[in-house]
Design goal:
The protein has helices at residues 27-39, 55-64, 115-129, 144-147, 151-160, 162-171, 186-192, 214-226, 255-270, 275-283, 299-310, 315-323, and strands at residues 13-14, 44-46, 73-78, 80-86, 107-111, 136-140, 177-182, 201-205, 230-234, 247-248, 251-252, 289-293. It has 335 residues and is α/β, with parallel strands linked by helices.
């Protein structure tokens, strides 16, 4: 099933920052940001147990539990179980993403893609989110960036565990859709080659952005479009560097990325285009992409995202980006 009909719009809200990603955010600020998203008409919210060891789910649940459940679409993820025992959040081994949630809750997180862990993870998420159901469930981070050389073994565990459980839950009507939520294209390409189970969509973070889209365009996006598997774009601002921040791929941006962003910004300024508008609208121009879910920790940022989606971007800007080699020649351009 395509999730295009399930999603209430092209813009959703990604809640990784609410798990205290990069900094400790006061509860009031987190609540005000979710409320701002709601007030601006956003009705799709994505979260995960991984975000601050349950903190993002708890904060999202506090606000959304006061809203009518049928009025919004909710997705969370499986693959990590949050325990009651504690550990030092700063000392966790998170592969390439070390220190990402060192300001989150100290609850121990265990990677587990088995059938039993998947069901337990969903139960725990429902409690933290203070809801009776989930609309979409993503299998989280079965990829190289978190698991290194062990990623294929993790993927196989998910294929025989989480994938089958979620397939069944969807067929039973317990959830409406499922897929993978990753930062790499390879697990998604692998999944599209399987005969079964059949995911409905993928959440792909950071790989279909202004700064990084070449690999996804080669095989993944054409295959996804052909198989009617929708793509939700996570991280459309590449961890913040395309929205005035300094992070790329969840770390301090390297010099060559900073230089590329400066070139894009210069072109944007020349054409009177906001950098956020350029980033968001580019990510959504491919026929396979159905929504983008930027994250925010300040209410004002949500207003910027809504405005960026509505902004008129002249065709000459996209042509200039292409002529300067800043976007791939085969990337679909916004109409």
């Amino acid at each position: 099933m395509s999730i295009k009909n399930l999603l209430p719009g092209r813009l959703g809200f990604g809640t990784a920052p609410l798990g205290n990603m990069f900094r400790a955010i006061p509860d009031e600020e987190a609540a005000a940001t979710v409320q701002a998203a709601w007030d601006h008409g956003i009705r799709y919210f994505d979260t995960a147990p991984f975000y601050g060891a349950g903190l993002s789910e708890i904060r999202l649940g506090e606000v959304l539990s006061g809203m009518p459940r049928d009025a919004y679409v909710l997705s969370t993820k499986v693959g990590r179980v949050i325990l009651d025992e504690t550990e030092d959040p700063a000392a966790r081994d998170l592969g390439e993403k070390g220190g990402l949630f060192e300001h989150g809750r100290p609850n121990k997180m265990v990677d587990d893609y088995s059938a039993d862990a998947t069901l337990r993870s969903i139960e725990d998420s429902l409690k933290r989110l203070r809801t009776d159901r989930l609309d979409i469930v993503w299998v989280h981070d079965v990829a190289q960036d978190f698991h290194g050389d062990a990623w294929l073994a993790m993927y196989e565990s998910a294929r025989t565990g989480a994938f089958r459980v979620l397939d069944r839950l969807r067929d039973e009507g317990v959830i409406k859709a499922w897929g993978l939520g990753v930062n790499r294209v390879e697990p998604l390409e692998l999944t599209l080659d399987l005969d079964e189970p059949r995911p409905d969509a993928f959440l792909l973070a950071g790989r279909y952005t202004l700064l990084d889209h070449g690999r996804a365009l080669q095989r993944l996006l054409p295959a996804a479009a052909e198989q009617n598997v929708d793509i939700v774009v996570g991280g459309p601002y590449s961890s913040g560097i395309l929205a005035g921040g300094t992070h790329f791929e969840y770390q301090q941006a390297p010099a060559e990325i900073v230089a590329k962003v400066e070139r894009i910004k210069a072109l944007a300024a020349r054409h009177g285009v906001g950098i956020k508008a350029a980033a968001l609208q580019f990510s959504l121009a491919h026929p396979a992409t159905v929504a983008a879910i930027p994250g925010a920790t300040r209410p004002g940022r949500v207003a910027e995202d809504v405005a960026a989606l509505a902004e008129t971007v002249p065709a000459a800007f996209w042509t200039a980006l292409r002529e300067e080699g800043l976007i791939a020649g085969n990337a679909p351009l916004p109409a």
